[in-house]
Amino acid sequence: MPIRPATETDWSAIWPIFQEIVQAGETYAYEPGTSQVQAHSLWMELPRQTFVYEQDGRILGSYYLKTNQAGPGSHVCNCGYMVASQARGLGVASAMCEHSQQIARELGYLAMQFNFVASSNSGAVHLWSKLGFATVGRLPRAFRHPKLGLVDALVMYKWLANA
Amino acid sequence: MPIRPATETDWSAIWPIFQEIVQAGETYAYEPGTSQVQAHSLWMELPRQTFVYEQDGRILGSYYLKTNQAGPGSHVCNCGYMVASQARGLGVASAMCEHSQQIARELGYLAMQFNFVASSNSGAVHLWSKLGFATVGRLPRAFRHPKLGLVDALVMYKWLANA
Predict the structure, then answer these.
(1) Each residue's pLDDT tens digit in chain A (163 positions)?
(2) Which of A139, B117, B146, B163 would be A153's cystine partner, CB 3.0–4.6 Å?
(3) Torsion (CA) B5, B11, B14, B18 in degrees, nearest 10
(4) Looking at residue B54, which CATH number applies to its domain?
């Protein structure tokens, strides 16, 4: 299995992936100018767990898992996935999302929620839909895309527990 | 105007309101056992601004305003409102919500989003709807109500800027 928990040693390989994606500003609700220190906190420290996808000794992607809302919402988790630009289209995101659902179930979460999927990110919307996530919300003009301007953001959600 | 920025002196009056509401666990996604130190951080430190509603020298309610998502989402704000149990039904929440929209506009936000409104909280749903918020999302069984069990949570949203 190419997916394993991230270690501090992995950060030097995760950071360029994070930086490229966040600087582009087309998919993630992080400040495009997020510093490496801030990124480390956001990706490696604040989440409950962080994983990497490693193949032949190279980090091709990473994801985090965290509780989405505290207290009465703490049975729902949230994940974020990033794939290196040179590794797109190889099924890395799909594998990480499937893996994260399994981890979430093991941790006792009942559902997974993506809070802020840019509607313009059709690859992600298509993939999450294929993996069983429903679009349960549409936030009008909530995402400022650097080329397209204000576009809707989607809330996507999947119940993980057995019925 | 009974609404003004909160000061450190106000905290001793805000905390009992926070504690009663959060311990009940019926409306807010905070841990029911949130400590006073944690509550101070969540309500007074992390938000961009915090306000109180004061009448005849008594704090009847408080609200915070913060940016809901960073980077490409930073034009949308989020608010949370709490009203003392003995001051319910007097229009305090309504006045704070109207006030927050004005403050949000002054700060340059284009929209306001409530991320996690318990669908069972019909008073809040009705009030926010009356004040122009649309229900743009419904999160299935995302809120664990202490009496009702798992109920849906709503995402509510209002565009603040002129068309």
Answers:
(1) 799 999 999 999 999 999 999 999 999 999 999 999 999 999 999 999 999 999 999 999 999 999 999 999 999 999 999 999 999 999 999 999 999 999 999 999 999 999 999 999 999 999 999 999 999 999 999 999 999 999 999 999 999 987 5
(2) A139
(3) 120
(4) 3.40.630.30
Q: Judging by DSSP bridges, how do beta strands B76-83 and B111-118 pair with one another?
A: parallel
The reply to whether B46 touches chain A by the CB within 8 Å rule is no
Which residues span the domain enclosing A77? 3-159
Tell me how many residue pairs between chain A and chain B have CB atoms under 8 A apart: 115
pTM of the model: 0.96
Q: What is the ipTM of this complex?
A: 0.95
Q: Is B163 on the interface with A (CB under 8 A)?
A: no
Selected residue of B21, B115, B145 to mutate for chain A interface (largest A Cβ count, 10 A): B115
Interface check for B152 against chain A (CB to CB < 8 A): the answer is no
If one counts the domains in chain A, the total is: 1
Provide, for chain B, the percentages of residues in helix, strand and coil under a 3-state DSSP scheme, each rounded to the nearest 5.
35, 35, 30
Separation between Cα atoms, residue A81 and residue A89, nearest integer Å: 14
